[in-house]
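Page 47, continued from p. 46.
Same chain as before, 258 aa.
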Amino acid sequence: MEVKALSNINGFLPHIPFQHTIKLMSYDDSYIVFVTKYNEVYLLEHNNVLSILNSLNEDEDSIEKIFNSTFNITHLACNSDSIILINENNELFLKGCFYNFKCNKMFELIDRMESLKFKKIKYLRLGSDFLFILTNDNKVYGFGNNYKALGINREIDSDTEENSETAIENNTEYEIHEWIEVPYKAKDISCSDRHSILLDLNGNIYTTGKNNCGQLGLGDEEYRKEFTKVQLNFKVIKIFADNLMSFIVNLELVTLEL
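Result:
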């Protein structure tokens, strides 16, 4: 495994005209999603961001209201295919495509999360057709259609190794139909489309999922189907999973790439 220190980048945060108090925000390569204190959901597409940054469009109308919620939104996550909301009753709402659900016209309730009804949710993390919830008691629960990035080790019923790998890559037949608890308590968890990083209570990190560019930090390019500890000689305080990379921050606040 090679860990690379990243140089500091001096930059600035541009002003985007928006006359509402924002309580939640999430983003993808294509857009940014805001939730206001009045539980209105707004979307700013990438092209409009570029227009604003180039001073070609300073009109707040470029930010589109997509939902006026009647419930209190407590958590938000998005990716290129979907926007997911959780309300104060721990119910899961979707706009877009996720797992076996398709809700293109408006946000729809897709899961009442009965097994997590009385849990206090700390973080919501969304990957490609899978997601994690981290609760205030530091437990992690996974759900979705990518068992390797969920770190859930399932036996593969296949006649040949080649067919097994094809099934894994296509994420078929390995759907997780219920919320499954990950066997590690965590401070945080981060996921890209196809891999995940878990930060435990002692500052250790565990990774799982796709590893074609060595993004799991395990010294090879082999896929993992369960969380595997990354051997480091320091403690980690922050983690971030990008599609082909993983980043961590140590106690000295140095950002490193796995």
